[in-house]
Amino acid sequence: MDGPVTWQSVRAEALRRIRAREWPPGSQIPHEADLATEFGCARATVNRALRDLAEAGLLDRRRKGGTRVSLTPVRKATFEIAIIRHDIEARGHGYGYQLLSDTCDRPPDTIRKALKLDDTTRMRAVQALHLADGQPFCLEMRWINPALVSADVSFETTSANEWLVRNMSYSGGDFIFYATPADDALAKVLDCAQGAALFAIDRTTFSEQHPITAVTLTYAPGYRMFTQV
Amino acid sequence: MDGPVTWQSVRAEALRRIRAREWPPGSQIPHEADLATEFGCARATVNRALRDLAEAGLLDRRRKGGTRVSLTPVRKATFEIAIIRHDIEARGHGYGYQLLSDTCDRPPDTIRKALKLDDTTRMRAVQALHLADGQPFCLEMRWINPALVSADVSFETTSANEWLVRNMSYSGGDFIFYATPADDALAKVLDCAQGAALFAIDRTTFSEQHPITAVTLTYAPGYRMFTQV
DNA sequence: TGTCACAATATGTCTATACTTATTTTTGTG
DNA sequence: CACAAAAATAAGTATAGACATATTGTGACA
User: Fold this and answer.
1) Distance (Å) from CA A74 to C1' C13?
2) Which of helix, strand or coil describes residue B64?
3) Which run of H or E residues covers position B78?
4) Three-state DSSP class for B8?
5) How confident is the model at residue B101 (pLDDT cuts 50, 70, 90)?
6) What are the backbone angles phi and psi of residue B151, rounded to the nearest 5°?
7) pTM of the model
8) What are the CB-based long-range contacts (under 8 Å, 24+) for A22-25?
9) Do B167 and B152 meet the contact criterion of CB atoms below 8 Å apart?
10) Touching A: B residues 78-117, CB under 8 Å
11) Which chain A residues in 164-203 lie under 8 Å from chain B, judged by CB atoms?
């Protein structure tokens, strides 16, 4: 029970009390200063521990209001969305890449709206296929703001996905995950039956209010996105 | 430029340098102590800022090794998986709930493997439908460890989803997101066409090595899971 | 009774210092 | 030269003290 009091040990004890309902949901827990006295450590150490639990969604903290146990402990599933090549390699498959088309066009309304563009803007449209062991794995349909990416950059051998991750910094964006049936074109490209249930991700990326890119990733049937908490 | 040096301002400046490639990907950045001197603040403040960026995946930090800019800035999409009722209400719909069945059975192999159970264990099987404005929204197919949840608990009016979130603490688990075609039964329950592309989540929950519950949530067509970074 | 100003309070943050720990580099030895 | 022991290093963490900031509560005043 003795030994050095680390913020992790304080967090562990606080977590125990929450789980054991010694601190029931919705109730106020003792102040930092009191806990510091009880645990025999500095207030900063308690602060670190409780802040961590608050970030995890188990506590609600407010100045002057004190700290209370969250009524609805939010589970935050975080998962890493990085380079598709890594995803494929992590699954133990050989990576393949194929550029399907690279044009400049007026994006459809949905894309224009998502990126907050006006009517006239033309964008670079890149379509590419990612392969796992030679089999179609994921279709990347991307619109890129040409003002931010030089036309010299070729996506013949390196995917736009990888190039952008490595070369563009970005501040934010949003993700939409959904299931979609394979239409004619998708079925052909991904080598699956028409109407097959496909997992898809729409991602929009901004850098300080400026639209960078919008992409739809459509995965071949059987794809499973995994994460641990 | 002046004013108090907060850890947020240090983080902002570090972020700017990363984005501006003053600190290029893969390169070492100055030590905490040096940065503290440069910014005119305590090392703890720099530590807080850099730790935050490291958690966000933009920096890699190692003791003695120093801090370097991540080569593959991992995007961590975090989203909140809480109570389905809240999800429906947040979308502006009225919530409805319907218990379909509540039995005790031997779980199928896939579930047994996911929960690391032996052959003989029987589990409580609960099937329920979540409705949005009276329309089927999400089918919850759940297996619960009866050793951890009293048989008295009824899921007639409150969903197992909600009861477990509120009453069971848990330490961890994993999530799998995928797309699946609607089979006969699913199509009937979710009131959609057979073969429709459905978004689904498999979730397994443990508490200190003990399996608590495994659940499959299958959403009606058109469901979109959204998150912002 | 309403409301505005002000005091009280709990968390948020910064500082300076010290010590710990993981890891690399250097040095010493067989 | 190989390998192990020792030194150096940079981040990780703890502490006491101080001040900042948001909120809540309270009391004076109209």
Assistant:
1) 26
2) coil
3) strand B75-81
4) helix
5) very high
6) -70, -15
7) 0.84
8) A23/A69, A24/A69, A25/A69, A25/A70, A25/A71, A25/A73, A25/B166
9) no
10) 78-83, 86
11) 165-166, 169, 172-181, 195-200
Q: Which residues contact B171 (CB under 8 A, 6 or more apart)?
A: B206, B207, B208
Q: Tokens representing A141?
A: 């349909």
Mean pLDDT split into 10-residue runs, chain A, 229 residues: 81 92 94 96 97 93 95 74 86 96 91 82 93 97 89 91 78 87 97 97 84 93 89
Separation CA A84–CA B76 (nearest Å): 14
- Reference B224, options A216, A178, A224; nearest CA is A178
**Phi, psi angles (nearest 5°) of residue A100:** -95, -45
Predicted pLDDT of residue A170: 61
Burial call B133-152: b when 16+ CB within 10 Å, e when fewer: eeebbbbbbbbbbeeebeee
CB-closest option in A71, A165, A227 to B175 = A227
Q: How far apart are CA B1 and CA B88, in angstroms?
A: 46
Residues 6+ apart with CB under 8 A from A27: A68, A69
Q: Is the separation of the CB atoms in A40 and A34 below 8 Å?
A: no
Mean pLDDT score of chain B: 90
